[in-house]
Design brief:
Chain lengths: ~200, ~375
């Protein structure tokens, strides 16, 4: 077992531990933080595969942006933990069955290719740019799926805004342009100028 | 040089079998060589801040501890070390202690890919720019966790404000950096600096480039990315101030509204770590601005050699701007801050990405 293997097992163990934490943590904030840990260690595993772009983007997008917003929402929830745990045993057989099915599927999918995985591993020279290679593939061979995904995301974004946008009547909002154009004379009326003693009724 | 000599000496001493151990030791030594001066710089940046703001407001600033107040940071450090760390009741103790560590860790980790000159750097990573973006985006966790774990309304409000602010300004910052990497055609920070260097191969592409070569031979600073990407330089610098939670974007602290925001419950060393993180982030952003827009270690004048001294001079200038902003501007109102980020910077940055992309297709692009 060489050094890379040891690093892989460390990251893999942390990922499994964090993933367990996500589903077992009682507090949703702790669960979200476990998910952050799982993302970080998964990104470490990708880094071992020399997929530096994907690994860094995983941290940048999921940990740096998505999970921040997630935490943002989860922190504001006022959850009654007792009610959340109600009916655990009633739903347990269903959950266990589902979990068993997923384990079976994953073994079926991953097991077949497991033996060939090491044969494909190519060690690249130090100046190999994973980012450039990925960019070349995305914008040439896979340009249609890529554009399709982009359009899909755009539609999702527009839909999210459309769902939450509502025009309420009787709301006082600030008009920024008028705020910016305000002059001192609009706000302050000099009633009496103490310097020369006469009253200024402007 | 001396560094190479020590490396060779250590390599010989440990032999080939123990080479990984020497490599680890050597890397750790280099990390210390970066972090120790950084911590010193943080300490004296706090003194510089108090002095500079003092002078700007016609005050003297700290001048009691040591000559010219030079021992003031030391006194502050000892004071913070001696203070008791109070963990509030009803707080999440583990996360409460973890938060300051989460704030400082990315602020230090990002230094791994910063090039000080053509050879001096810890890691010559290909995706250095992405790594920097990823690390700086982690800094917000310290603030959020601190705000939530403190079990305090003020801290929580500060955390929410900070989360929204940092996520918003990160987008503009990212697009500004996209312009830089388009111009440099590389994510490697060393290559980005080398892209701003004047070199003879520039004359190959047409007569405009030829004329430009003679101009920048006399004024090398015209070849820095600050010239074609000036709007992005402004966006990056201002977003950087917002990322570091510095005035006038310090709504996460907002002393007048939410007392001290996310770190209101922290005392002693836990507070000091937040303080260190803020100043380490400031220095980091100053370094990144200098490297990506102001030519890094390159000399602005043709008759002076390139050196790390230039980088430090540029960094000092940007840091002075940070202090100047704090002494000059009142704090943004929260909605104004969001409007600046979403309605001004992000559209501007996206438009400039397109402009640079089109510009680069013409012969007028000489950088």
């Amino acid at each position: 077992m060489n050094f890379t293997d040891i690093v892989f097992y460390v990251f893999a163990a942390i990922t499994v531990f964090a993933a367990m934490g996500v589903i077992t943590a009682r507090n949703p904030v702790n669960a979200a933080l476990f998910l952050v840990l799982a993302f970080c260690s998964a990104s470490g595993i990708w880094m071992l595969l020399e997929a530096e772009f994907l690994s860094i983007v995983l941290v940048l997008v999921y940990v740096g942006a998505v999970m921040v917003l997630f935490l943002f929402v989860v922190m504001m929830l006022d959850i009654n933990l007792v009610r959340l745990r109600e009916g655990f045993w009633r739903w347990f057989p269903f959950g266990a069955g589902l979990a068993g099915l997923m384990v079976f599927e994953m073994i079926y999918v991953l097991g077949a290719r497991q033996t060939q995985a090491t044969a494909n591993a190519v060690v690249h020279p130090a100046n190999y740019s994973n980012t450039k290679e990925l960019g070349r593939l995305i914008y040439t061979d896979y340009v249609y799926p890529f554009e399709l995904a982009a359009v899909l995301l755009l539609v999702a974004m527009v839909a999210a805004i459309a769902l939450t946008l509502r025009r309420r009547v009787g709301v006082k909002t600030q008009d920024v342009s008028t705020q910016v154009q305000v002059q001192a004379a609009d706000r302050v009326r000099i009633v009496k100028d103490m310097r020369d003693g006469h009253t200024n009724t402007k | 040089m001396m560094m190479d000599y020590i490396n060779q000496l250590g390599g010989n001493f440990f032999g080939s079998y123990w080479a990984p151990i020497w490599l680890t030791t050597w890397t750790l030594l280099k990390i210390v060589l970066i972090v120790a001066p950084l911590m010193g710089a943080v300490a004296y940046l706090t003194l510089a801040e108090r002095k500079v703001i003092g002078w700007m407001q016609i005050r003297i600033g700290p001048n009691r501890v040591g000559y010219f107040g030079l021992l003031q940071p030391l006194a502050d450090g000892i004071k913070l070390l001696m203070k008791e760390i109070i963990v509030p009741t009803g707080s999440n103790k583990f996360l409460f202690i973890l938060a300051p560590i989460m704030a400082l860790m990315p602020a230090l980790a990002a230094w791994a890919v910063i090039p000080f000159n053509a050879e001096m750097m810890l890691s010559n990573a290909n995706a250095g720019l992405l790594y920097i973006l990823a690390m700086t985006s982690l800094g917000v966790y310290g603030v959020i966790i601190a705000g939530w774990a403190s079990n305090s309304k003020y801290a929580f409000l500060g955390a929410l404000r900070s989360a929204a602010q940092i996520v918003s300004y990160e987008i503009a910052m990212g697009f500004a950096l996209v312009c830089v990497l388009m111009a440099a055609q590389s994510l490697n920070l060393g290559d980005i600096v080398r892209g701003q260097q004047v070199h003879a191969a520039m004359t190959d592409s047409g007569s405009i480039a030829h004329g430009w070569y003679w101009l920048v031979s006399v004024f090398p600073f015209l070849n820095w990315y600050i010239i074609p990407l000036f709007p992005m330089f402004m966006v990056y610098l201002i977003s950087g101030v917002a990322e570091a939670n510095r005035a006038p974007f310090d709504v996460a602290e907002g002393e007048s509204e939410i007392v001290a925001g996310f770190h209101v419950e922290y005392s002693g060393m836990t507070f000091a770590l937040f303080f260190l993180a803020e100043y380490a982030n400031m220095i980091l952003i100053a370094f990144l601005t200098s490297i990506m827009f102001m030519g890094g270690w390159l000399s602005p004048l043709p008759f002076l050699p390139d050196s790390v001294v230039w980088l430090l001079a540029k960094v000092s200038f940007v840091l002075f701007l940070f202090l100047w902003f704090r002494a000059t501007f009142p704090r943004y109102r929260y909605d104004q801050l969001m409007r600046l980020g979403w309605k001004v910077f992000i559209p501007l940055a996206i438009v400039w990405v397109v402009v640079v992309g089109a510009w680069m297709q013409t012969s007028l692009w000489v950088w």
